[in-house]
Design a protein that fits this description.
Layout lengths: L2 H15 L21 H8 L3 H8 L8 H10 L4 H15 L15 H9 L5 E4 L4 E5 L1 H6 L12 E2 H7 L3 H4 L3 H18 L4 H13 L1 H7 L9 E8 L3 E11 L7 E6 L5 H16 L13
Antiparallel strand pairs: 1-2, 1-6, 2-3, 4-5, 5-6
Helix pairs in contact: 1-5, 2-3, 2-4, 4-5, 10-12, 11-12
Length: about 300
């Protein structure tokens, strides 16, 4: 992954999405040779020279001030995730320290695992930015049972299962939205941690082996993933749609705890009860290395 090429493709793709009308500019003539805004239009909206913006879009963000980056983000009407990604790319190309402190490499603390275990009514797991599931409670393992086959590599990786396992498409019934979310999260992490060799290796593997991943990756979409709904097609309880909340762990930089829930007296809630009963009978979490928080 080249940071400079990522900058070029990201800015060009965002520029292509904004029409002159959306930017409040007159559209002169009917034969525009580029989709969206021209470079000179972005420069005008951002209050910088055309030559300077062209240099920035070519990947030379090193030295660009926070104010200039914010002006470009405003001109391109970037959302919160896109704006953060632009700043991450600028930090990466300038080799400035990232906002996040150094990421934890040791095992998860017992206190964190106790919190995870205490969530007996909610499927929950802890992941890193590569979407490795580092620790999972019993109900979470039951929900993600198709990922936890005996021959699956550890730690389990959601993206690798989704794109490379023959059961991935069936497990995620809302396939297009699920693909968009997974790839956007990995693209966001690539901006935050360009030196992560594990992430680089995972993306290289997925780009090489999955045409669907390759197509989605080229769109340069990013997103924040704090709350929402997610659907699964589980082999025991059938299709189930759950609410989720994702919470970063301040003491464990780069790690996120995700928990699923369902409102009482709904089909999803009933399905969770069935899942819990099945998990209890199969004792899904016993002596599993992922429960120990191994990385």
């Amino acid at each position: 992954m080249s940071t400079e090429s990522d900058i070029r493709e990201f800015l060009a793709s965002r520029r292509a999405k904004i029409t002159p009308q959306q930017a409040g500019l007159p559209a002169y003539g009917g034969n525009r040779r580029v989709p969206g805004l021209r470079r000179e239009e972005v420069a005008m909206l951002a209050g910088v020279s055309v030559d300077y913006y062209v240099r920035l879009e070519r990947g030379h963000l090193a030295g660009a001030s926070e104010e200039v980056l914010d002006a470009i983000a405003n001109a391109l009407q970037l959302d919160e995730a896109e704006r953060a990604h632009l700043h991450d790319l600028a930090r990466a190309v300038a080799r400035r320290p990232a906002r996040r402190p150094k990421r934890t490499r040791g095992p998860l603390p017992d206190s964190v695992l106790r919190v995870l275990d205490s969530m007996t009514d909610s499927p929950a797991f802890i992941r890193n930015g590569r979407l490795d599931m580092l620790a999972v409670n019993r109900l979470g393992r039951a929900l993600y049972a198709p990922l936890y086959t005996d021959d699956a590599p550890r730690p389990v990786n959601v993206a690798r299962f989704q794109f490379l396992d023959p059961h991935g498409r069936d497990f995620f019934p809302d396939w297009e939205q699920s693909v968009h979310t997974t790839v956007s999260l990995l693209r966001t992490e690539a901006g935050r941690a360009p030196g992560d060799s594990g992430l680089t290796g995972l993306i290289g593997e997925l780009v090489t082996r999955s045409g669907e991943f390759r197509t989605a990756w080229a769109k340069h979409n990013v997103r924040l993933h704090h709350t929402g709904r997610k659907s699964f097609r589980h082999p025991v309880v059938g299709e189930i749609t759950l609410d989720f909340d994702a919470m970063e762990l301040p003491a464990q930089p780069g790690l996120t705890l995700t928990a699923y829930s369902a409102a009482p007296h709904t089909p999803a809630y009933d399905a969770l009860q069935l899942l819990a009963a099945w998990a209890a009978t199969t004792d899904a979490a016993t002596a599993d290395p992922d429960r120990a928080g191994n990385r």
